[in-house]
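Hey, quick one: can you model this chain's 3D structure?
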Amino acid sequence: MTPRAKTRALLVTIAALAAALVATLAVWDPAGDAAPTGAALGEPVDFTLRSTDGPVQLAALRGRVVLVYFGYTACPDVCPTSLTATAAGLALLSPEERARVATLFVSVDPERDTPSRLAEYAAFFAPDIRGVTGTPAEVRAAADRFGVVYRRHQLPGSAGGYSVDHSALTYLIDPAGRLAARLPHAAPPADVAAAIRRALDPPPEETP
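Sure thing. Here's the predicted structure for all 208 residues.
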């Protein structure tokens, strides 16, 4: 290949990568996380989905802090980054604190993510992260309650056939079952641990 042909091929590759990046940003807008819909802070939240151990209901986890993240196992980078940060935050807790925390990874790709596949994927990051899923309607209802946005993005010619673009916040539920915080994508582990501790042991309310 001549130098001119190599240059032309390189430019074509760069143009293709740029087009792919533009297409990705067009359907996944991280800035949208800054203006969430769904439940307001302080409102109770609930759903019932399924894991390999059977139904998982948020209401049954009252008394514990619950972290909820919506993603899918074929996610190339956003989900692994968030779950790695969450796992590192959990590792900063004492054993007593960690026993009072539950973490749920909710699949927004129920067609491909079976409970067994989710269990294996979630355990890769931390043994106490549980993967849950449901019917497409059940997952959509749970996502809507939190204001999670997701949609399928077709990938012609790829082995998987499609990806799922989704918002990337982690939701923190307090022991009373109320939405207490929204953690940004890949929040630093220290921030994750601090948010959990605030929910575990909130400061006493001031009396007038």
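One thing worth noting: The helical segments are 3-27, 78-91, 95-98, 115-125, 136-146, 189-200.
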